[in-house]
Amino acid sequence: MITQAGQNINSKKEPLSAIPVRYVKGVGPARAEILARLDIGTVEDLLYHFPRRYEDRSRFCTINKVKVGEYATIKGEVLTAGLRRGKGMALFKMAVGDETGVIYAVWFNQPYMQKMFRSGDKVVLYGKVERYKDIQITNPEFEIIKDEAEEMIHAGRIVPIYPLTEGISQRGMRSVVKNLLDKYLEEIEEFLPQDIKKRNDLPGLKQALFNIHFPESENLRKAAYERIVFDEFFELQVALAQRKARVKGADDGVAHKVGGELMGSFKAVIPFKLTDAQKKAITDIENDMASTKPMNRLLEGDVGSGKTIVASYALVLTVSNGYQGVLMAPTEILAQQHFMNLNRSLSPLGINIVILTNSVVDEAREEAKRMIEEGRANIVIGTHAIIQEDVKFKNLGLAVIDEQHKFGVDQRVQLKQKGFNPDMLFMTATPIPRTLAMTLYGDLDLSILDEMPKGRIPSKSYWVGEQRREGIYKFIAQEAAAGSQAFIVCPLIEKGKVLSEAKGKKEDLKAATEMYGKFKKEIFPQLKVGLVHGRLDNEEKERVMADFRSGKVQILVSTTVIEVGIDNPNVSVMLIENPERFGLSQLHQLRGRIGRGNQRSYCILLSDTESEEAKKRLKALIGTTSGFNIAEEDLQLRGPGQFFGTRQHGLPELRYANLVANVKQLEIARKEAFDLVKGDPELKDPGHGQIKEIVRRKFTGKTELKA
Ligand code: ADP
Ligand code: MG
After folding, report:
1. Is 307 in the pocket of ligand 1 (CB under 6 A)?
2. Which end of the chain has fewer CB within 10 Å, C or N?
3. What is the pTM (predicted TM-score) of this model?
């Protein structure tokens, strides 16, 4: 309907996300600039700018009951007030009385305060009670009650305390938020279906948003927070569910045939009995690969749980179907190791494997590329070099990414695009709990290797101080004399190249090059000592690693380049220098390099650290060998942002919900979201229109949810 003014009054109101915040009463252009510093640009931004905490100023205290040194909320009437100036100072003092007594409110250097109050005004004061000459509150929060029915926002209630920036006070922020709610609260549209709210006992959106700012009670505040957390998880999970449905919906993947002669010969050469977990993962993968829908599966397993054989199985399966397989690893060393292992076990079966890394150059590189393009290479193993544009596959059937968290989202996508909807298998050695994994990689199916191969003797971990250093050197020498090998891990490559993070404190960090020299000349002159770190050229690295594998090098001094995947069952000792410098999960990964054979092995953390945080990490590490426990502990200690490295993983930043504390809500929201998308994959139902819009607005353009 068109009105005379030509306005279409049936047209939808502008969404709050499209209205600039300066239109909120009390904001205006100047304050809008201040708010912009808090990333608040629109009415919606301000609406979702939540208090960081609250103060309960709702319990009134009569003046005769106030206690010096404690905070109190009192209600009374302004009796007298006066401004005194002197010595460059202004003091405004006001007497407030109730039926039980008199108290003073005092403001320093705020002469304008005298304009705020008139005798007879009813006021509420909140602040810390002090005694000078009189009982007084300095700089109290206050509220002038004009009309008993009108809501108080600064005192006399549970009061929000906001994150601020220079130029706006708590009082100012509270007022503009209140103005916003007065004007726009009624325009907030509910987007959650009624039945979801009901099932989960969630308040409506309006009520939640009001109570998150100005809680009418602690219970209502809690309920409001539950709703906000639910929304945040729910929106994310709807996006993931849709993405998953889209991948699954594609029907043009490679349908592999399972079984066959080659698979039979492969199974026959596996030198050990698979664990039940490995068998289960292989079945999952076979089912996925047999389907016309592309596989999109994450294989999660602690270090040493045997992911490689599972990946090999899948690679051989694609080859037996006449396709090519690719395995991409994050480091040259790891790619080399995979190449050697797979080549040893698979080339006797007539499978052709090529390696492609940045150290494969010139004619060798051209030949590798030709073999890949012409399909003569059945399996390609390599690093990022594989995803370069000039590398073309003939018919890629399966892509495996090892230590997938070391790759960016784009790189994973680029690998996928080397084929036409190839099956994808991602592997990770960060064993996070299932629910979290599903959230983080919510669009992937999940197989977990939660069982170690039998017959392993778990490594023992010790944390010792400097005074034991000599003894440890002796122990390493003994082990070497008995035919074992050792890793010595240092936090730095060279001294002085990395600034110490400890503020102002001089730290004596061990550097690999320096320790190498010392070990070789002074401490283990009788042994062969090697050095490997990230700045060596690839040829050098390879040579050292090969010598270490063959036993020519007995002691390998290294940085964390050995963190991922290196497999040498003959190593019995790992000495970690300055372990306080490493993260918990990282230490666990490092430790995973030993205990891979059938002799007892030892991980020794040498540290006199005084940092409480570091002590916690070291204690946690020696307390358990389970990667799942470690991951959970690490997550608790560091928080999800740090733990996952949000950017890297592409997990959208959670603003209100906490992955650790709110994991139950996460499960619930996930279930609701997946159910909703199951019933209405494209969110076509008009009742889901808002959710669709929110998900579109918040998650499209985010690579990790697009792909
Ligand atoms: P990760 O999961 O850390 O990649 P690997 O695949 O490198 O672990 O396996 C670690 C070691 O365990 C390798 O030497 C591998 O040959 C061996 N292994 C794997 N599965 C089994 C098994 N079922 N029984 C015995 N040894 C196994
Ligand atoms: Mg591995």
Report:
1. yes
2. N
3. 0.69
